[in-house]
Design a protein that fits this description.
It comes from Chelativorans composti. By secondary structure, the protein is α/β, with parallel strands linked by helices. Among the domains are: about 150 residues, P-loop containing nucleotide triphosphate hydrolases (Rossmann fold, 3-Layer(aba) Sandwich); about 60 residues. The longest helix has 18 residues. The two termini are about 35 Å apart. The structure holds adenosine-5'-triphosphate. Adenosine-5'-triphosphate binds next to strand 2 and helix 1.
Amino acid sequence: MTHLISARDLRASYGAKVALNGVSFDIEEGTSFALLGPNGAGKTTLINILCTLQRPDSGGIVIAGHDALRYPRRARRNIGVVFQTSSVDDRLTARENLEFHGLVHGLPRRKREARIRQVLELVALEEWEDDVVRSFSGGMRRRLEIARALMHEPKILFLDEPTVGLDAQTRQQIWYYLDRLRREWSLTVLTTTHYIEEVEDADVVCIIDHGSIIAQGSPAGLKKQHGRRWHQIDTIDRAVRQLILERFAGAQPLGVSSVVVPEESFDARALKSPEFEGKILEIRQREPTLESVFLSLTGRELRDRADPGRIGNGRGGERR
Ligand SMILES: Nc1ncnc2c1ncn2[C@@H]1O[C@H](COP(=O)(O)OP(=O)(O)OP(=O)(O)O)[C@@H](O)[C@H]1O
């Protein structure tokens, strides 16, 4: 097994504020690795350190076999980065932005031309290559940023909150292109997000809170190890729901007349009592979610959801 990225005991602080409190992990080649955590957890600090923009107070990083703290340039050659805030030049065309990035990385003309065609095709921006970026939508800009980050053929792509500020449909597009990169280009992709729905398809999810990693594993593994099972109870009206909310510890309302109850406080016999006769429509068991993993590890909910109304993992579907 090849570790393309290894981080050891990374620590960083801003004055008295500790942003990273001893973070260690390994990322295998070809993996999609999602760093999930609430705002202020330390995700941006970690990305900045990994892409050699910021030095940690202590710790070590090896990227593609290079000690990134001693030889940042060597490490950097292997990395493409998409930052949280837009960094493309909106006075230039899409092609000019890519051309400029290729020049900075010293790509010869022929190689540059071929690579520009390749990355524009990947993010489906060929038709707009000669348009000025100022006229692009938020999603098109983000796609161009992904294309630009790939110009110098890095092995690793870092993306800091790649979908923040985009609408639901555009977020799906971005994930479609990132999935394609992983499938077709075998790239190692590290993304940070505070949208729990967006990490369901990652190979490895690393949950970070208050500057420390609190759990790491595949989404299925994390759910199995830390998730809670719930029972969804559909009732005939709000009044019955209220009764259940008062009776079962940790119960939460759902929709108009349903309620979810954690497995440990669920009591099937109580629901068969005369009090509830004819008032319960259906009882279903719900599998653990990553939301419940976060809740059981931190005692808090990761409330800032991408789209509270959406069911599912928020990916796939839209192509362009
Ligand atoms: N330049 C800075 N000066 C002082 N404190 C900082 C600075 N940058 C980050 N912090 C603090 O360090 C902690 C980690 O911040 P960081 O930006 O790495 O978290 P994050 O998980 O990326 O959150 P967000 O998604 O909001 O950017 C936070 O408490 C933040 O307030």
